[in-house]
Amino acid sequence: MADDLLTLTIREVGAQGDGIADGPDGLVYIPYAAAGDVLKARITERQKSGAFAEIAEMITPSPARMAPPCQHFTKCGGCQLQFMSGEDYRAWVKNRVASAMGHHGFDPGVVRDPVITPPASRRRVALKARRTVQGVVLGFNERQSHTIVDLKACPVTRAELTILFEPLRHLLGNLLPQGMHAVLHLTLTASGVDLVIEATKELSLADREALVSFADTYDLAAVHWQDGGFLDPVAIRREPVMQLGAARVALPPAAFIQASDEGEAALVAAVKEGVAGAKRVADLFCGIGTFSFPLAESAQVLAVEGAKGALDALSAAATQATGLKQIVTRHRDLYRRPITGAELKGFDAVVFDPPRAGAKEQAAALVASDIPVIVGVSCNPNTFARDARLLVDGGYSLTSVLPVDQFLWSSHVEIVATFRKG
Predict the structure, then answer these.
(1) Per the annotation, does 264 bind a ligand?
(2) DSSP state for residue 142 in the 8-state scheme
(3) 57 annotated as a binding-site residue
(4) What is the pLDDT of residues 150-162, one digit of tens each?
(5) Same domain, 221 and 97
(6) Residue 379 among the catalytic residues
(7) Strands (E), 61-174
(8) How confident is the model at residue 144 (pLDDT cuts 50, 70, 90)?
(9) Parent domain of 44
(10) Is residue 275 domain-shared with residue 390, that is, in the same domain?
(11) List 70, 154, 286, 379, catalytic entry
């Protein structure tokens, strides 16, 4: 009904990508609304933080709007900001980080202009699939839903992966019983596509033959089938490897890597800039060595990681790589047992790159060290700002914050920041 609609003007786009307007009873959050839009909105939910609404009618579109490049936009939950023009989007990414830093008392001026990765650059995706009566639906979930959007295209993903979407539908149509769900991890490695399929089904001989044939037909590097805790290497045609600096690292199935080549290059360059001149560097939460190997071109590196598979891959690659300084690995849960200042005696710099939860315990331990330079990498501006506050309150100066956007048109953004003692 018309009486249920509010006429609103969007004043800004918030941290989660929703347009924010001032309503009669407080803030109203509206997905896919741009700053400057004048629209009619229908309230869908009320919470203490404000009301949530949907666009019912666009009265006057914002000049900042552009036509979204994807036919699935507003249905697929993968992207929230495809309506934003290039300069407005760049400004939003910078402000996303500056706002998070500001909430913890930092001057927004410390945030540099962001690095924005181009379309069609995502080299790893996790797709959802379900066998239905009509066939297999394959894609990403709708926003705040378990409903799968059947993707026909994806403008943020590498063509080497999107070209497999339709063949995978046909493959799964023969493998999955009706109603069964699956998750497909596709990773473009230096040796080809690595495919891991998660589904609660024991493979038959015919299933295995179909998977091997698929790998041969589409020249995949490897195919694994994961049923619960059992990982089955169905077809290993070539070992999936990542080129990290001078090292070729064997990639454990579905292991974490940076989302794009361009994003990884920007992060590595910023980390190396931050620790320039260091002769001994500790790389904490090192993963498979995204930073360890480039750092080892000029410094001895202590690589510390809690995931044993990732650390084993790094260690094996370090023994084969040539032209690098020494890399020493240490298996350790840095949440339960952070590296202490005493253990870092003699090191010139520390790099830390934790998961989204941040590194609160490790940051607190670093405060007690004499490390001259710390470079923090993060995929969560909010937990990063919290950890940065700990370091600065403990005697470090925050000298640089670089946003790196490798999840194009989404609310996710990476950060590289440099802290100096004193």
Answers:
(1) no
(2) B
(3) no
(4) 999 999 999 999 9
(5) no
(6) yes
(7) 115-116, 124-132, 135-139
(8) confident
(9) 2-65
(10) yes
(11) 379
